[in-house]
Amino acid sequence: MNQDDDLSAGWRYCATLQLSTPLEFLEMDGEFSAGPEQPPLVGAALNFLEDGTGFNPYGCWVREVDYARWGFDPPPSVTKGQRAAELGPVRRGSTEENDTLFFVKSFRYIVETAKTLDQALTELAELSSSTPGNRRMWAMYADGDPMWPDSYFSGQLWKQLPKGVGLKKADKLYLAGFRSIEEIQAASDEQLLGVEGIGRGLVKKLKGA
After folding, report:
1. Structural domain includes residue 95
2. Using one digit for the tens of pLDDT, what is the confidence trace for 153-195?
3. What is the C-alpha separation between 26 and 97, in angstroms, rounded?
4. How many domains does the structure of the chain reveal?
5. pTM given for the model
């Protein structure tokens, strides 16, 4: 056991504060695990380090030191530290951090439980003005994004499209009413060719995905 283990109070889970983080990871944010050994990875490993260690982009366990137990004052990096968030770093323990976590969790709950896209958009519209913190967060996401919140869903469509199809093409398909790769492949060539910027070559690529 090394000195860091002696000082450790355990591990605390830190979820990634972004709209793509599934709710199950966000719900774990702040959970504590005692003991010197790092807890197992939460969720499946989607990426791997050179040594074979697996990780995913949705969160990680962070060592927590028991400064009071050993008679030390926490360093400024702990008391005034920041954590990464999609719209920029937020100070730990701040109202901004709480607002960000609450908004992202609420957003994920809606997109994961809504039965239809229209239902999700309706519920998101209600979320946008439900609290001062949500109004501020909504305005930050909408700033410079005329498609917000549809841009989130067109981005999800883009991830389903064949490699090499740009996000702008995904936006055009989304705005034309195609919300999934299944809907695109079920459409006729004529319907797809009616979308601005979609030619026969791209239709063939989309149908072959």
Report:
1. no
2. 999 999 999 999 999 999 999 999 999 999 999 999 999 999 9
3. 13
4. 3
5. 0.85
